[in-house]
Design goal:
The chain has one domain. The chain is built from six helices and no strands. The chain is elongated. The N and C termini lie close together (9 Å). InterPro entries: DUF1304. This is Transmembrane protein.
C-alpha cells in the first residue's frame, strides 16, 4: 500500500506541475483560458495572480516528489512527512474550491482525487 500511495502521490505532483505550466506559463493562451473558463480580458487582468498561484502548485509538487524519493531512499518518516506536506494542501485546496465554487466541482475533483487517494493509501501503508 505504501508504494501505491507513493505512486499516486507522484501522479498528484505531476498534475500540479501541469497546473503550474497552465497558471504560470500559458495563462493567457486560448487553450488554458478554455480550461479555466476565463475570457482574454479576465486572463490578462489576473495574469500576475495566476503566475504566483502556479508557483504554489509547483512547490507542492516538488515537496511531494522529494518526499517520495526520501521514502524510497529509506528515510520513511521524513519522506512520509514531506509527502503529506505536499499532498495535504493539494487536497485542502480542492476542498476549498469545491465548497466555495460549486460550479467548479469538476476542477476540484480533478485537483483533489490523486491527493485524496494518496493520503488514504499512505496512511494505510504506514499503519498496517
Amino acid at each position: 500500500m505504501l508504494t501505491a500511495g507513493l505512486i499516486v502521490a507522484t501522479l498528484a505532483a505531476v498534475l500540479h506541475a501541469y497546473i503550474f505550466v497552465m497558471e504560470s506559463l500559458t495563462w493567457t493562451s486560448p487553450r488554458t483560458r478554455a480550461v479555466f473558463g476565463t475570457t482574454e480580458q479576465e486572463a490578462q487582468a489576473t495574469r500576475q495572480l495566476a503566475f504566483n498561484q502556479g508557483f504554489y502548485n509547483l512547490f507542492l509538487g516538488v515537496v511531494t516528489l522529494i518526499g517520495v524519493v526520501a521514502v524510497f531512499a529509506g528515510f520513511t518518516a521524513v519522506g512520509a512527512a514531506l509527502v503529506f506536506a505536499g499532498v495535504g494542501p493539494m487536497l485542502a485546496a480542492a476542498v476549498v474550491l469545491l465548497v466555495s465554487a460549486r460550479d467548479k466541482a469538476r476542477a476540484a475533483i480533478t485537483q483533489g482525487l490523486f491527493p485524496a487517494v494518496a493520503v488514504v493509501l499512505l496512511v494505510a501503508g504506514l499503519t498496517l
